[in-house]
């Protein structure tokens, strides 16, 4: 390799899957590591850059950087969220890529598909919260929403709760429920997975774990459906009526200061003066680090809201990179062979 040659690895989604990166335990361990590192001051985590192209539909592209000083790696997630895509174009509403660079010389080391990592982070954080906050040996889970994040949540919850044997799902269309059931039954044959013909109450009532993962902006989940002892993982923006949070014994966020400035149910409540800061029990990091206890009784209703912290995506992406590095998968990319003015034929290429 020439002195000024720069190379990095490219990994497609299929490369990452082939290397075994759809590993919930790996993702949870990366999240726990990241939380400890953040607490120790080892993480640089700037504000994300948001470009919204349509205020009504919230079509947007976000740029989210983070650095782990002790790992000597900097990463950025470039993620697009276009909620109308599934209905208008029959395609996914979220796509992402991730770039990792080392911070000794500042050179890129990996460019990878990021949708897998992004969805895996959502599921892993929800499952980690459930590990600490859901009822032990939970047996049933109910979903409102049947998309990619709901599917990832089911895989993640089953990983931390092997006791899960029943899953009910409600979506906007019966066809979405049918696809969810067909795909997830193949992956989790020991779980009874059924659609509810778009009946939200039937999907969630009496479930030990409830997950809402939709692009809707409506109070879909009702407080009356959440039984004592239930754990609720709120994935999207506005998905439940205020009474769900009002009746919760504990409200936990990934980061309350971030959540309250967004468009989640909890932030709407806070802005309306219905949810003071002291009503929020704490952040998941405090529970993972042992600074706060998690579930303290079998009858507690617990509400968890994760807005998404990109430094966790970078941590998972780095774990994926480490696992994939020696797999023989992916492509070697040449970024440059020489510095600009070292090229022998530069005179032939320049335009003045």
From TrEMBL:
A Pfam family of this chain: OCD_Mu_crystall
Query: Which segments does the entry list as coiled coil?
Result: none
Q: Where is the signal peptide?
A: none
UniProt cross-references to Gene3D superfamilies, sorted A to Z = NAD(P)-binding Rossmann-like Domain, ornithine cyclodeaminase, domain 1
Give Gene Ontology CC terms: cytoplasm
Q: What is this protein called?
A: Alanine dehydrogenase
Task: Tell me the classification of the organism that encodes this protein.
Answer: Bacteria, Pseudomonadati, Planctomycetota, Planctomycetia, Pirellulales
């Amino acid at each position: 390799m020439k002195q000024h040659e720069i190379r990095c690895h490219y990994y497609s989604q299929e490369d990452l899957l082939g290397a075994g990166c759809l590993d919930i335990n790996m993702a949870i361990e990366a999240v726990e590591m990241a939380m400890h590192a953040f607490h120790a001051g080892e993480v640089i985590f700037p504000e994300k850059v948001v470009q919204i192209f349509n205020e009504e539909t919230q079509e947007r592209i976000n740029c989210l950087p983070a650095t782990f000083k002790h790992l000597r790696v900097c990463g950025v997630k470039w993620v697009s969220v276009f909620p109308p895509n599934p209905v208008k174009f029959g395609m996914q509403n979220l796509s992402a890529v991730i770039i990792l660079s080392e911070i000794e010389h500042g050179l890129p080391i990996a460019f990878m598909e990021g949708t897998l990592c992004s969805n895996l982070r959502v599921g892993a954080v929800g499952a980690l919260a459930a590990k600490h906050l859901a009822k032990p040996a939970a047996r049933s889970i109910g979903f409102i929403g049947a998309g990619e994040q709901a599917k990832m949540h089911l895989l993640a919850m089953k990983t931390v709760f092997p006791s899960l044997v029943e899953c009910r799902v409600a979506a906007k269309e019966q066809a979405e429920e049918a696809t969810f059931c067909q795909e997830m039954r193949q992956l989790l044959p020991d779980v009874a997975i059924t659609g509810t013909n778009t009946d939200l109450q039937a999907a969630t009532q009496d479930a030990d774990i409830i997950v809402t993962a939709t692009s809707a902006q409506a109070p879909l989940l009702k407080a009356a459906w959440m039984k004592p002892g239930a754990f609720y993982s709120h994935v999207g923006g506005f998905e439940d009526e205020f009474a769900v949070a009002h009746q919760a014994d504990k409200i936990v966020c990934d980061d309350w200061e971030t959540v309250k400035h967004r468009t989640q149910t909890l932030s709407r409540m806070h802005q309306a003066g219905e949810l003071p800061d002291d009503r929020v029990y704490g952040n998941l990091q405090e529970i993972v680090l042992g600074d706060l206890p998690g579930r303290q009784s079998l009858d507690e209703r617990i509400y968890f809201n994760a807005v998404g912290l990109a430094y966790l995506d970078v941590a998972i992406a780095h774990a994926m990179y480490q696992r994939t590095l020696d797999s023989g998968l992916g492509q070697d990319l040449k970024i440059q062979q020489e510095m600009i003015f070292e090229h022998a034929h530069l005179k032939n290429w320049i335009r003045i």
